[in-house]
Prior knowledge:
Elements: H1 3-6, H2 10-13, H3 19-26, H4 30-36, H5 62-76, H6 81-95, E1 106-108, E2 113-117, E3 120-123, E4 142-144, E5 150-156, E6 162-165, E7 175-176, H7 183-191, H8 196-202, H9 207-214, H10 218-223
Helix pairs in contact: 3-4, 3-5, 8-9
Amino acid sequence: MAAKQRQSDIRYTSPICTASQAARLAEMPVNTVRAWTRPTATRPAIVHTIENSQRGWPTVPLVGVIETWSMRALRKAGIPMQKLTRVAEQLREELNDPYVLARPLLFTDGVDLYRRDRGDLFRIEDGQQPIEQVIQNYLSRVELDDDREPKAFKISLTNGVELSIDPRFNAGRPSFERNRIPVFAVLGALRAGEPSAVVASDYDLSAEEVHAVEVAPKWLTEVA
Length: 224
């Protein structure tokens, strides 16, 4: 996607959560994610944000959420921060693409870094190819469109219930992937004391879907 197109694409321009909420989604310390959103003397910001005039309002667009998840996956796998930022910057310059962490183009098997090129993966250091199955979990939360652009961020709850964060629906608030019902509506009804069976009927959800929200981790309430 050309830079001009991104200027009007809500995946890149519409803030849908705060840095704190992005940290919750990626299960990372809030201070770490906030540091990623700020440039330093040696690197630009790792996670893209949009300026907001109101303090406390969302600043992180969908691509920033996915960049946070990508950083989390690579860091949790043991890739040193210095190496990761160096390689990311090299790819940004080589491809003239500031969003390489949101494609995603970088993968790891827990030992080495790999880059995707024309659909195949190659090790950064020597070009060798890994076994694709090793890195499939890395893609489990990112939904891509036909152009390999990030389209949505997925959240898996119990019983196979899938939520989606997609800026095209409910201003990017977590929603049921099946019917786009926002999670905050279900949580609000449950907090108000509505029986789960009534909530399921009112929102055309299954008992399993409502139960998955009831027993979801606390952070879901914070990002919903």
